[in-house]
Amino acid sequence: MAMKKKPVTGMKDILPREMEIRDYCIRQIKETYSGFGFTSIETPCVESIENLSSKQGGENEKLIFKILKRGEKLKLDEAKEEADLVDGGLRYDLTVPLCRFYSNNANDLPSPFKALQMGNVWRADRPQRGRYRQFMQCDIDILGEPGILAEIELILATTTLLGKLDFGNFTIRINDRRILKAMASYSGFDEADYDSVFIALDKMDKIGLDGVKEELVSAGYGEEKVDKYLELFAEGEKDTEAVRKLAGILGDNLSAEVAENLITIIESVDKAKTADFKLAFDPTLVRGMSYYTGPIFEISMDEYGGSVGGGGRYDEMIGRFTGQQTPACGFSIGFERIIMLLLERDFKVPGAGDKVVYMIEKGMPADKLSKILDKAAKLRIEGRTVNIVMMKKNKKFQKDQLTAEGYTDIVEFFADKEVE
Length: 420
What we know:
single chain, alpha/beta, 8-stranded mixed beta sheet, 3-stranded antiparallel beta sheet, 14 helices, globular
């Protein structure tokens, strides 16, 4: 039977054109984030299944690529349930591995610790535009900083990077999980119902207010309660005054400090930003992960039609490993979606310089070939890119291909002519 030449569903081969852009973006990411004091770390792609199934990853826990036990530990004939067969899984994000990493290495790390982590993650998801089953994530996190300086730094670092990658006029939507809970409490929902209410609210941009109402009423929540809840979203303002107004309505259901901190984040970022973007308060923003405990944020771009990154504060997650609460906040960019948008723009990597190709006729004498190799070596020392290829019969087609690859200077060498 012939072997399959296509990648596994939801995964892809990366061609040189895309790889050039990916490498450029990775360099920009490391340079920009290191300028904000973040340091690179790396964690294994495989995590213990107990960590991945800790009910912290929301819907992603249903999408884990699970790994069978190996060797003598795999006892198929004795297995009664999945837990008897599985002991690990491919990570579905970088946050769970980061929390385990910090818990294991905290004594050797500064406090606060500003981490940059890039790597592939895996989700058994339905592939679609900008979504794969294997994809690169890029996270920055600040661990050990309880104040809003962490949120401010994360937003500024991320937006500075996007500005360097030639993105502008995007929106950072921001909310706070405590505001979400206060709105639900004010409307009369029980705390046990919050998650199901938020799942419906998270669909607001797709089904609208009426759709959310229909879903909540169908779930058995009283119409009066639902109407009171949805009235809180009727206002169209997205600025700090909207935060103050909502805080006034919620009264004792929301701590005044929560609202003031959110306002300070918005105003501070707006004054210090260097990229072209808007920071908008959005009380419908939920973020799917149940581990978020405070401010949450998401990047929206019109040219994508959805989110290209997000994050928030997750102060309780590290404590599940250590038993001791550690403040934590992070921001992740959708690396694959950024790359996809750059490819669709036909993005040209800046500063690449002229690329030279030497086309050599077959039968080139050894002495002339040595001179050509010497010329190429000198140009490479100067920082130029020099590719050496054998000349084909169809030179026009060959040159067209080389030009498409970005070679701007094509030099031909013939066996019967001197090498200048």
